[in-house]
Structure formats: structure tokens, C-alpha cells
């Protein structure tokens, strides 16, 4: 049985109700399953709309079909923002079902996880894990690392990162990218992987063979432990240093 979500408040209008085509409404909170989500464009409260816009592009926005977007220019803008499907007001249920099926198939093709050295990146959780422990990345930090991981060993330009992560078609006069890269590096440094992301001419890259491999990465259970410095401190007994 095919599943879909409904993101707008209230009931589902008959013209958009895929249950009449044999689909089942997924009502569990969160994204336990990656299923197409439908939202009526003119019926989304501002607070919920802000939440939708804050979603990670690949993980969530690509799973959303916006319905009832009247203006062609507005439909184009929503597509540029990363939404999976954007349709006008007049759409028959057979076409809606076909588009929802295609959206679900496209979602199934997205790689849910990616490995970068000792790190495992989970797209749906928007988190990086070292030995099954999360790094507590900010969503933007995760998106940066995910995008850099697509070109492991190769450079990603600043303009490409701003386009793919910030959805900007121009280079702004701010240092937001550098700030987020710095924060990402700090969290990687805390687990012994500070050399993973390097600055290259025009952008950034994940080092193909970074210095801190799995063997030298600090387990997250110990990262930041104030007693860590005692583990490597030399022992002194009766005036003699024992390394």
C-alpha cells in the first residue's frame, strides 16, 4: 500500500485526497518513513511554512509536493527552492497520483547514508555519526559535509556550496559560509578529525586520505573528557619519568 503525508491543517480536499486512489495517510510524527508529502500552498500557516522552508533540501523538501500554486513565476521559485513537485490549482486525481508516485520513486533513489572516512552521514537524521555516536551537527553544517562528501577528494567551489546548500544564485557579501565551515571543523576537531575538511583555491574539499583516520579518531564517549589529558601524561615515580 502506498503512503502519503498531508502537511496542511484541516482535512484533505477531495480533489487532493489520494485515499480515493487506494493510498493510505501516514499520520505518525516525524519522518520514520520517507513518503511523499502534500501541502496546499495557500493553506499553510506562517509558522509551519517557516518550518518547511528550514527543512534540508535533499532529505525533506524534495519529498514535498506543493498544490494550488497559481502563479507560474511562483511555481518556478518553489522549484528553485528545492521542492519535489509544484502544481497549479487545476489537477485531476490521476495526474496527482502519477506525480506522487514519481516523487516517491525519486526519493527512493536518494542515498540515505554516506560514509566519509570513519564518519557515517545519515541523510534523514541530518546527522554524522562516529562509532554510532552523533556529532550534534547543525543542519547547515550537515548539509555542508554531505555536499563536500559528494566530491570526496575533489574541490567544491564557494559558489557551488552557496547554490546547493544556501540555495543562492549569487555570492553574498557575508562570511556565513566561512563561519559554518569553521564551526564544522571545530566539531570534527573535537573527535580527532579536524584535518578532514581543507581549504583549497576557490572553495573547500574533503581530503581523500586525511591525516586522522579511524585509528586516530577520538571516540565520542571520550571527546571533551577533562580527564583525557591525564591518560597521555607521563608518570613520575621517585624522580624518574616513565613514558
TrEMBL record:
The keyword Cell inner membrane does not apply. Residues 111-208 bind DNA. One of its GO terms (biological process) is regulation of DNA-templated transcription. Signal peptide: none annotated. Residues 111-208 form the OmpR/PhoB-type domain. Keywords: DNA-binding, Phosphoprotein, Transcription, Transcription regulation, Two-component regulatory system. This is DNA-binding winged helix-turn-helix (WHTH) protein. It comes from Novosphingobium marinum.
Amino acid at each position: 500500500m502506498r503512503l502519503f503525508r498531508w502537511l496542511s491543517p484541516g482535512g484533505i480536499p477531495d480533489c487532493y485526497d489520494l485515499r480515493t486512489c487506494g493510498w493510505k495517510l501516514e499520520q505518525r510524527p516525524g519522518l520514520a518513513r520517507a513518503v511523499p508529502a502534500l501541502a496546499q500552498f495557500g493553506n499553510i500557516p506562517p509558522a509551519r511554512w517557516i518550518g518547511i522552508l528550514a527543512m534540508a533540501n535533499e532529505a525533506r523538501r524534495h519529498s514535498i509536493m506543493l498544490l494550488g500554486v497559481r502563479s507560474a513565476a511562483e511555481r518556478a521559485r518553489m522549484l528553485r527552492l528545492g521542492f519535489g513537485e509544484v502544481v497549479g490549482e487545476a489537477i485531476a486525481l490521476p495526474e496527482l497520483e502519477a506525480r506522487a508516485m514519481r516523487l516517491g520513486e525519486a526519493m527512493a533513489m536518494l542515498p540515505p547514508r554516506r560514509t566519509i572516512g570513519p564518519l557515517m552521514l545519515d541523510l534523514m537524521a541530518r546527522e554524522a555519526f562516529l562509532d554510532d555516536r552523533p556529532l550534534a551537527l547543525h543542519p547547515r553544517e550537515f548539509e555542508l559535509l554531505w555536499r563536500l562528501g559528494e566530491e570526496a577528494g575533489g574541490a567544491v567551489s564557494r559558489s557551488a556550496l552557496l547554490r546547493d546548500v544556501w540555495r543562492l544564485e549569487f555570492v553574498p557579501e557575508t562570511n556565513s559560509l566561512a563561519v559554518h565551515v569553521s564551526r564544522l571543523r571545530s566539531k570534527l576537531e573535537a573527535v580527532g578529525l579536524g584535518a578532514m575538511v581543507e581549504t583549497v583555491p576557490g572553495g573547500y574539499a574533503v581530503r581523500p586520505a586525511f591525516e586522522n583516520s579511524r585509528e586516530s579518531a577520538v571516540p565520542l564517549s571520550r571527546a571533551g573528557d577533562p580527564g583525557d589529558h591525564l591518560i597521555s601524561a607521563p608518570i613520575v615515580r621517585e624522580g624518574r619519568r616513565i613514558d
